[in-house]
């Protein structure tokens, strides 16, 4: 029997899986302040990833190129941020322009095309000055905890649900240390950074800079995900009880699943996973999942093909579906996922200079999770169904009306529009 293909990999590895190309960035050369590799803050002795923090992951064969390529951004040189304190500016008698208030000064922001595509500047300026977002808890069910400086003070080393010691890579099965292990450890780190990286004049800008991230490890060192581990991880992340596991003191309102379950046929939603999704939805948590990177109908995948899931596929900078991205009726909307050689620029302690440029539906999903957390920060009583409706009905229509020339390869209602979703939420008292 052939070995299953890991479900948490990279557009390259993930032509049958869900993360995507954690390859060295092919974006323009950037000069940024390196983000130091700091050890995980854990009560247990953390297991360091196999590869050194500054060593890129091994090169993986790219997926087929999409039929249309976006124009490459011009080379942009970003000056390092000087660590010396900046003198305080004299008091201003003029109120800041609404067009500039809350715009991040993080050096990577000017090349984060994904944030521009979903309208983040016009989203952040809808908040009062200096008060972007709120401390909404988002669970990242993925490869585990990595101590990203972008999330210092706002992330939790949750729980390790990998039950098979042979695949865990940390010498045991389930335990209280969710630290990532192995060459795929940084998959979850990048996803968390897209959701909540600080606006602190270094590295990248995340969508909700006040979000709280709970890392829930469900992927083994090999990148594979056991359905039983995923079921228990889902329940625990939302604050439901799991036999033999301490209660989660930080239950999440949003669960990001940039993955799919292995060891099962890709013929529809697994009943065990569907049951867990229904339970966490009833608890009030929204499940956001990537559609997967096989270029196939997403309905056969778990959780992408399950009910009560907001399934997200990828679009490129030009708003079209890249060849790797799964599609179909189970997909609710699209978000930036990039394509080979033009991925999502993000901070990562695993990348040269503290950055990487991966592509895949793994990195589309957290854009939706991040925006959902912003909506909950202003309307905390929104239900999962109301959140889903807001995000879907405010999406930007695809160029020429669809994401792909083939009408069967649908991508939902459009591309995520953060500014429109927040504007609609603020215009209504629902969920206040």
TrEMBL record:
Regions crossing the membrane: none
Domain Peptidase S8/S53 stretches: 136-397
Residues at the catalytic site: 142, 187, 362
PROSITE patterns: SUBTILASE (PS51892), SUBTILASE_SER (PS00138)
Biased composition (Low complexity): 91-100
Region of interest (Disordered), ranges: 39-101
Leader sequence segment: 1-29
Alphabetized Pfam families for the sequence: Peptidase_S8
Keywords for this protein: Hydrolase, Protease, Serine protease, Signal
Family: Belongs to the peptidase S8 family.
Alphabetical list of PANTHER family matching this protein: CEREVISIN-RELATED (PTHR43806:SF11), PEPTIDASE S8 (PTHR43806)
Protein name as catalogued: Peptidase S8/S53 domain-containing protein
Species the sequence originates in: Deinococcus xinjiangensis
